[in-house]
Amino acid sequence: MSGAQLYDTIGAAYTVTRRTEPRIAAQIWAALGDARTVLNVGAGTGSYEPSDRHVLAVEPSALMRSQRPPDAAPCLVGSAEHLPFDDQTFDAAMAVSSVHHWRDPIAGLREMRRVARRVVVFTHDTTATGWLHRFWLTRDHLPEVAGLLAGRPSVTELAGAIGARMEPVPVPWDCADGFFEAHWRRPEAYLEENVRRGVSVWARVGPDAERRAVHSLRDDLASGRWAERNRDLVDLDAAELGLRLLIA
Ligand SMILES: C[S@@+](CC[C@H](N)C(=O)[O-])C[C@H]1O[C@@H](n2cnc3c(N)ncnc32)[C@H](O)[C@@H]1O
Question: Which residues are near ligand 1 (CB < 6 Å)?
Answer without folding.
Answer: 3-4, 7, 18, 41-44, 47-48, 59-61, 64, 79-81, 96-98, 101-103
